[in-house]
Amino acid sequence: MRLPSRVVTLLAVAALPLALSACSSGSSSGTGASAHPAKEKNPNAGLLTGTQLKKALAPASALPAAFTHEADGTSDSGNQFLAPSSRNTAKPDCTRLEGTSWIQVSGFKGGVSFAQDDYVNQDKTEELAQEIDQFQGTTAKTVMNELRSAATGCATFTDTDAHAKVKVTSRSTAGLGDEAYTMTLTSGAWENGTTLIAARSGNAVVTVLSTAGSDNGAATAKKLTTEVLGSLKGKTAA
C-alpha cells in the first residue's frame, strides 16, 4: 500500500548581517543594507500531480473489450505531492513482480506523485495494470537502473500462490519513451506468463503489467505502454 497523500512543505529562512559602510573623511554615515534570501527552488516544479497523471492513464476504450475496471486497483496521489521516498537497499523482494505497483521491486515505494488502475477479464484469469510515477531530479533514471538490477537478481524466484519456480527473462526495449525495459515471467505451473514493461519519459516512469493473450501478455503490454506514453507526452504541469 502507498503512503497517504501529504503536502511537501519547503521552508527557507535566512538572515543576513547588517552591512555597515563608512564614507570618506569629512563626512560619515552608517547605512544598513539587507538582501532578500534567494528563493529555494521547488523540487516538484514541472511535475504533474496525481490528479493530472490519472488523466494520462489509458482509458477503458483503449483496452480489449472483454476487460472491466477493478475499483480496488485504482488510486492516485491527488493534488498534493508526497515526500520523496528513500531507496530500500535490501535485497529485492522478487514476489513484487507478481502484482501491480511492481515498481517497488526497485527499492523505491514510488514517486512524489502517482496514478494507477487495474483491469481484468470476465472470469479474472487475465489482468492489465498501469501506473505512472513522477520523481524529482534524476531519480527516475535511478529507478530504471534499479529495475534492471532487480531483474538480474530475480532471474528465478518462487511465487506466492502456487509456490512454483518462476523464470524471469529481461531485455532493454527500444522505441518506448527515453528508455524502456521489459521483463517476462513464466512458470510451468501457470497457464500463461506475465509481461512487465517499465518506460521512462523525462521524470516519469510508466510501469505496465499484462497477462492478456497467448504471448505472455507481450503485445497488450506494449500497446498499453505506448498508449500511456503518448497521453503523458501531451500533459504539462499546471
Describe the protein in words.
- It contains three helices and eight strands; from the N terminus they run H-E-E-E-H-E-E-E-E-E-H.
- With about 240 residues, the chain is an alpha+beta fold.
SSE blueprint:
Blueprint: H1 50-56, E1 68-76, E2 113-120, E3 127-134, H2 139-153, E4 156-158, E5 165-172, E6 179-186, E7 194-201, E8 204-210, H3 218-233
Antiparallel strand pairs: 1-2, 2-3, 3-8, 4-5, 5-6, 6-7, 7-8
Summarize this structure as a short list of keywords or feature phrases:
238 residues; alpha+beta; 8-stranded antiparallel beta sheet; globular; disordered N terminus
In short:
This protein is α+β, with helices and mostly antiparallel strands. Helices cover 16% and strands 25% of the residues. Strands 1-2-3-8-7-6-5-4 form an eight-stranded antiparallel sheet, with helices on both faces.
| Low-pLDDT stretches | 1-30
Tell me, what's the shape? globular
Give the termini distance in whole angstroms: 27 Å
Radius of gyration, in angstroms, nearest whole number: 24 Å
Number of helices: 3
